[in-house]
Amino acid sequence: MEKPRVAVIxxxxxAQGHLNQLMQLSCLISSYGIPVHYxxxxxxxxxxxxxxxxxxxxxxxxxHFHDIPTPSFASPPPDPNSPxxxxxxxxxxxxxxxxxxxxxASYLRDMANKFERVVVVHDSLMAVxxxxxxxxxxxxxxxxxxxxxxSKAVFTWDLLGKPLPIEHPKELPSLEGCITDEIRDFxxxxxxxxxxxxxxxxxTCRLIEPAFMELLEREEIAxxxxxxxxxxxxxxxxxxxxxxxxxxxxxLEWLDKQEPNSVIYVxxxxxxxxxxxxxxxxxxxxxxxxxxxxxxxxxxDKGDIFDEQVRRAELPEGFEEKVKGVGMVVREWAPQxxxxxxxxTGGFVSHCGWNSCIESITMGxxxxxxxxxxDQPSNSVLITEILKMGLFVREWKQRTELVKASTIENVxxxxxxxxxxxxxxxxxxxxxxxxxxxxxxxxxxxxELDSFISHITRGNDI
Length: 462
Description:
CATH topology of the largest domain: Rossmann fold
Keywords: Glycosyltransferase, Transferase
InterPro entries: Glyco_transf_N, UDP_glucos_trans, UDP_glycos_trans_CS
Structural class: alpha/beta
Number of strands: 13
CATH class of the largest domain: Alpha Beta
EC number: 2.4.1.-
Strand content: 5-15%
Domain Glycosyltransferase N-terminal: 5-235
Largest sheet: 7 strands, parallel
GO molecular function: UDP-glucosyltransferase activity; zeatin O-beta-D-xylosyltransferase activity
């Protein structure tokens, strides 16, 4: 009996922003009629499904999830008072993920017996786990980069100990202070296994990061491997699935009642916990600005998000009552792509994680940048200095300082109610038109995705 021809195996890194992007990519590749298998621990497969944002439920149903046994790991709470905002509470989980190598290798060998070709698409931080793909004759692997081309280039040349060889803003954030020694060591483990990859995928659009894509395609970085810039990989039509909680509907219903471009959306992603003192300053800054706001106030994730013991951050007494009609505070998981796509949303106070940036770019929403760790400081430079679709709330060099209410108030007024803010918004809308067109039939990113699909199905009439 003839074997089915190609299967794609997704191996995500267990952190929300990474799980999310590989879920989006899974649905995209599946739309070409290729079976896609999403591989991870039971906890993280469940997390990926529970937190599906904007994806169509029927598309997710087509993905095959495979739970790999993972050793138990400590799941401590985040420390909101730490001056260093890197999510060290997730390190035990990441260390535990290294033990997936053997069961993943066994799974890949099993799949290689069932399909003519097995294509592994893995996060760059999972190279150690998938490295045995190199010993399977009918298997090949591709790295999916969950960061901007700019951040990847900044980090790559930083690790080489060389200056970025093209024109760039004077001050670039170095890795120092962005990450911990532990995650740097974790990265270092990936370097040799990364050499086994057959190519690179990027969740960016070549039209907005051309110079940085060219840098990453240089022979000294990519070798003879091909790169595909296929982003943004958000679905063209965002779904409002029936699995949404009441609060999700509430915040979107609240936005329905507001004027176009009148609301600032405030969210710091899944890996940042603000101190009580900073929460108070942010609350007062929002109140004093008189700008309408939707504020997602949640603690950073623990390794196991299903462990219900979560800190409930305190707001100033009577705050929600005082801002009734002007602002809304959401404490649950929020449908961010739908919020950013809403016509009432006119700005985004963001930590500048790449999911948030690429969603904001796609929806044409200008950003008030407040980077916290990892690639966020370099993403914030990309947004403010290179793409010119945002401004800083707080620059990276001032990361240890408390951001005062007066600073927040001032930035919100500039972004939401000034000529400068209007110009930034116009620029954001122009970029949105560019990347939206790029993902449509015949567009730059769609052509690169088609090229990748042709490459992995080469020699097959799929």
